[in-house]
């Protein structure tokens, strides 16, 4: 078993990777139409003035401005038409005193003219034209070199060539550019449990996430040609083969899984077996600690964590910045933002969290485990907490790294529910959703960072209304949502906690801060025997689906969950009660256009009950109840 003897910092990991990747860079010359997303390998200069000649910006008449001085609607100036000029013509016509030349947009200004009168300000009759307004010298004229001058620098070395920059290059006469060639990266996944999406999933198997994410993310980041090679089981011979078969075709091979220090984690040994060397193994950060980096001859190898969130963080926080540093010579700089809540990271390790940016510019962390790929679904970016900090307080500054930042008219933080999510995304497909339980939603509303928060909190026999104390009422209202049937989920028909205890069965609990946990605690009441003796009471699932799946997969005998999941998974259901899932809504959002759309989306859920067994959608859904 391998032990991580020395962990490198995230900063050192990026520097080491970037330095090695820099050695891979090849300079090629390509036509500009093939250069989008690539990086200029040298400074690029304009080869012509833009525009290359004095040209008219409108359709009209080229004149000497002095000839039309004082022209007005009720006192026009009449000039003789000496000819016309169209785009692409050099034109031998000259504007003499008392004459004008008809000119089309983009045409060369004729000699003797210094302005253009728009055709809307003229009236032609035969060989003459009446001018109804005066013009100043240079009016409606683009002079040569006023946009770009010959020899101007268009793109510095290290600049990513976007379509807009390439358009500028084309305008200035540049047809071919010297750029850094795309880095070729071959990607594969490891693990006996990995299967391709689209296959029938068996117990213990998971769909491959990392391979597809790595390929698409790297290919869209610019400067990379990424290919997904498939997956291999945790067998040394299979890993050796896929590396040897593909090493010549790529600059870098990247694999996920089998990188940690466990008995079955062998990828770092495989690198040494094929003649490679490990440059570092382990980064002093969470998530993503098991990452390693090595060299095989002149090629590089990146060993990524298997858990999807861990690998996504390493890809965006370490690997892609390293690639950009290798190509452009500089890392992207993070920006400083404030956090609205207290965060206590793992001590002595830099900790990275996915986060959303709230409307007031704060970064709100999306908490969860390192296997949760859904945490980056709605994330705008990542925040990083240094390892030497025990915690950061609300209002403290942290470093923020953009990922997929976007504007959203709805921020939803609270208890997860498929109907709630449907209404939120119907309001705004770019909405930001953070599922962190009912009490998490209440707190988010209380500090002013949530627009809507779904809650199902039972207090003294009443759902949700008792939550609104006077301070919360100043910020929010409670609107009616819908009802959900909640009860015991099992395979054998469990009907009480006492039955679970008496039969020695295993229970799966819900996490503290969830509305379901409040219901469970109210049901148990003062019966401490259940809390101390019921097997599994301390096993907390963070989601409704997690409870149901634990029972369906025989990891637990019973749990308290929704009838909806019992029907979906073929479990037995014993009813406890109908709960109200209602929605806290900020007063400001309620009065906004987006708020009105959200209420409309809620009301449109009427009639969806047939697709959601165990749900009841009332007539007054979307109406204020407190």
From TrEMBL:
Signal peptide: none annotated. It comes from the Archaea. Pfam families: MoCF_biosynth (PF00994), MoeA_C (PF03454), MoeA_N (PF03453), PBP_like (PF12727). GO terms for molecular function: molybdopterin molybdotransferase activity. Pathway: Cofactor biosynthesis; molybdopterin biosynthesis. InterPro entries: MoaB/Mog-like_dom_sf, MoaB/Mog_dom, MoCF_biosynth_CS, MoeA-like, MoeA_C_domain_IV, MoeA_C_domain_IV_sf, MoeA_linker/N, MoeA_linker/N_sf. GO terms for cellular component: cytoplasm. GO terms for biological process: Mo-molybdopterin cofactor biosynthetic process. Keywords: Molybdenum cofactor biosynthesis. This is Molybdopterin biosynthesis protein (MoeA-1) related protein. It comes from Thermoplasma acidophilum (strain ATCC 25905 / DSM 1728 / JCM 9062 / NBRC 15155 / AMRC-C165).
């Amino acid at each position: 078993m391998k032990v991580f003897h020395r962990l490198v910092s995230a900063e050192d990991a990026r520097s080491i990777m970037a330095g090695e990747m820099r050695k891979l860079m090849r300079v090629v010359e390509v036509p500009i139409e093939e250069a989008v997303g690539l990086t200029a390998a040298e400074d690029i200069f304009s080869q012509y003035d833009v525009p290359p000649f004095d040209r008219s910006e409108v359709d009209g008449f080229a004149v000497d401005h002095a000839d039309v001085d004082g022209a007005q609607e009720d006192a026009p100036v009449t000039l003789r038409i000496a000819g016309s000029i169209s785009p692409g013509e050099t034109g031998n016509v000259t504007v003499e005193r008392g004459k004008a030349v008809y000119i089309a947009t983009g045409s060369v200004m004729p000699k003797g003219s210094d302005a253009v009168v728009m055709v809307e300000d003229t009236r032609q009759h035969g060989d003459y034209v009446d001018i109804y307004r005066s013009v100043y010298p240079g009016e409606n004229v683009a002079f040569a070199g006023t946009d770009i001058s010959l020899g101007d620098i268009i793109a510095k070395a290290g600049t990513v060539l976007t379509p807009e920059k390439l358009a500028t290059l084309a305008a200035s006469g540049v047809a071919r550019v010297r750029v850094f060639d795309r880095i070729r990266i071959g990607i594969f996944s490891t693990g006996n449990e990995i299967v391709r999406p689209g296959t029938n999933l068996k117990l213990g198997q998971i769909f491959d996430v990392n391979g597809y994410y790595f390929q698409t993310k790297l290919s869209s980041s610019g400067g990379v040609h990424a290919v997904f090679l498939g997956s291999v089981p945790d067998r040394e011979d299979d890993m050796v083969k896929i590396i040897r078969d593909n090493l010549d075709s790529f600059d870098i091979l990247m694999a996920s899984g089998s990188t940690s220090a466990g008995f079955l984690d062998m990828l770092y040994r495989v690198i040494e077996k094929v003649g490679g060397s490990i440059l570092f193994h382990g980064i002093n950060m969470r998530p993503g600690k098991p990452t390693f980096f090595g060299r095989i001859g002149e090629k590089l190898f990146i060993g990524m964590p298997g858990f999807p969130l861990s690998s996504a963080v390493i890809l965006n926080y370490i690997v892609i910045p390293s690639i950009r540093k290798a190509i452009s010579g500089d890392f992207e700089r993070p920006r400083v933002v404030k956090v609205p809540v207290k965060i206590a990271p793992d001590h002595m390790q830099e900790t990275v969290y996915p986060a959303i940016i709230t409307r007031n510019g704060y970064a709100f962390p999306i908490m969860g485990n390192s296997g949760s790929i859904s945490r980056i679904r709605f994330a705008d970016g990542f925040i990083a907490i240094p390892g030497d900090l025990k915690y950061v307080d609300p209002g403290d500054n942290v470093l923020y790294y953009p990922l997929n930042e976007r504007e959203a008219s709805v921020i939803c933080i609270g208890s997860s529910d498929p109907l709630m999510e449907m209404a939120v995304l119907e309001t705004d497909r770019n909405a930001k959703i953070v599922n962190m339980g009912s009490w998490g939603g209440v707190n988010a509303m209380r500090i002013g960072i949530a627009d809507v928060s779904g809650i199902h909190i039972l207090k003294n026999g009443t759902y949700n209304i008792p939550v609104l104390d006077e301070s919360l009422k100043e910020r929010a209202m409670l609107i009616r949502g819908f009802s959900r049937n909640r009860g015991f989920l099992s395979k054998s028909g469990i009907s009480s906690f006492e039955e679970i205890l008496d039969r020695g069965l295993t229970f799966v609990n819900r996490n503290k801060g969830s509305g379901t946990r409040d219901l469970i605690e109210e049901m148990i009441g003062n019966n401490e025997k259940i809390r101390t003796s019921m097997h599994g009471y301390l096993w907390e699932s963070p989601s409704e689906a997690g409870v149901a799946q634990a029972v369906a997969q025989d990891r637990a005998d019973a749990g308290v969950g929704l009838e909806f999941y019992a029907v979906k998974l073929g479990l037995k259901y014993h009813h406890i009660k109908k709960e109200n899932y209602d929605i806290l809504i900020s007063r400001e959002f309620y009065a906004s256009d987006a708020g009105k759309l959200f209420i409309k989306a809620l009301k449109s859920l009427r009639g969806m009950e047939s697709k959601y067994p165990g749900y009841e959608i009332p007539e007054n859904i979307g109406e204020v109840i407190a």
